[in-house]
Design a protein that fits this description.
alpha/beta; Nonspecific Lipid-transfer Protein, Chain A; Rossmann fold; 2 domains; 4-stranded mixed beta sheet; 18% strand
């Protein structure tokens, strides 16, 4: 039954703490404004049952309510996330509960080849057209590199790829393995500009098909091979190895074996770069206010984020020596903000490529990521490694070579 007293108390509590540009519209036509300024976000509650999401808000249950249609939310995604985060600050799961939930998830949903492949297909095989409408023309789906801060997305993504390939010192004729190659942008650039001979592996059939087409269009079939293959099945030896935006799917408990496998594939004197998202919580709990639970359920099933300290430790356990670490958190906040802007500018075209639920998931997910990176809930590190115990003369004296 509709409880006017609870709603009034909730409204008064919110107003006393925040000045939110939010209007709540009830099923009976009543409206509640939570700020004297013009509302930038409107939440319509279609029936009394939807009130439970507002009276105990978190980013997780507000996101779920929006995705499932229990609440109708209007506004720019960045404003929606800002308002939702402010509401979530009025309540929240205790840290221990979030930590226990994260550990339980790993126990009940262990990583297997089948589950990993299923999770990749769920996330990446929406459609190539879907991704093309908010990514840059090269379809690079990872953190861009804004050398000066004013680059457009396409320029920043190419600079990111060149930054990676320069960091690992790719030379003509060297072999390069790209684990989780996406739509092929990195291996195409490594072959065409740096003269490398490349293998890219992915578990996404959509990525595999388009990456092969793009390699053929570039006339690089003799230097680039795209495989639909699990990294654990790759054999051989490679002078350079890159993993960009992939190790988040491996699972925290599996990181030592993941890096051990990379070490076995790395040729003597070789260099590897791991570019991936990390949590900033040293206890590796889910992101604040239920946002991690939302991503687990709707966006990245079986995805897990490790803290930087865990990544470095498991690299050493896997037989790799960390040589260079660079934080690109600020760069990913900007990348996600530009993706969100592209998504909203192309909203009608994107709706034509997917069902309404998928649209709503990605609408809040991209903006939520921008918010999370901007507020240091999550981060992004590029880590350069070599085989542990190699001669020190293989390691450059300074970082100057990275910026030539």
């Amino acid at each position: 039954m509709f409880d006017q007293m609870k709603l009034s108390a909730w409204t008064s509590g919110i107003r006393s703490k925040f000045n939110l540009p939010l209007r709540v519209e009830l099923w009976n036509g009543a409206q509640v404004d939570l700020s004297p300024e013009q509302p930038r976000v409107k939440i319509r509650v279609p029936n009394p049952g939807g009130l439970r999401y507002l009276l105990a808000p978190s980013l997780g249950n507000l996101g779920e309510a929006y995705v499932e249609g229990a609440l109708e939310i209007e506004g720019r995604a960045a404003d929606m996330i800002q308002v939702g985060s402010a509401l979530a600050e009025t309540t929240g799961k205790p840290a221990r509960a979030s930590r226990v939930a994260s550990a339980a998830l790993r126990l009940v949903s262990p990583h297997t080849r089948e589950k990993d492949a299923e999770a990749i297909r769920y996330h990446y095989d929406v459609s190539n057209e879907f991704y093309s409408l908010f990514l840059d023309p090269a379809m690079v789906y990872s953190c861009a590199y804004f050398e000066n801060g004013d680059e457009d997305l396409a320029t920043a993504q190419q600079k990111k790829i060149d930054h990676i390939l320069t960091k690992i010192g790719v030379q003509p004729g060297q072999t390069l393995l790209d684990i989780g190659c996406g739509w092929g942008a990195l291996v195409i650039r490594a072959a065409s500009r740096f003269g490398a001979r490349c293998v890219g592996v992915t578990l996404s059939e959509r990525q595999y098909e388009l990456a092969r087409e793009r390699v053929a269009q570039a006339g690089l079939q003799d230097r680039v091979e795209i495989r639909l293959q699990d990294y654990r099945d790759v054999a051989g030896s490679f002078d350079r190895i890159t993993s960009v935006g992939m190790f988040e799917h491996v699972g925290v408990d599996n990181l030592p074996e993941y890096f051990r496998r990379i070490g076995k594939l790395l040729a003597p004197g070789g260099v590897v770069m791991n570019h991936g998202i990390t949590t900033t919580d040293v206890e590796q709990r889910n992101s604040p206010h239920g946002s991690g639970e939302f991503i687990d359920k709707y966006v990245f099933p079986h995805g897990e984020l490790a803290h930087l300290s865990t990544v470095i430790r498991t690299m050493q356990e896997g037989g790799l020596e960390v040589r260079d670490v660079e934080n690109l958190r600020r760069h990913y906040a900007r990348t996600c903000a530009l993706w969100t802007e592209n998504f909203e500018n192309n909203a009608d075209r994107i709706r034509a490529t997917c069902d309404p639920k998928t649209f709503r998931i990605w609408h809040v997910y991209l903006a939520g990521c921008a918010y999370g990176f901007a507020h240091d809930w999550i981060s992004l590190y590029q880590i350069v490694c070599g085989k542990a115990g190699e001669e020190p003369d293989l390691i450059p004296w300074s970082r100057r070579y990275m910026y030539r």
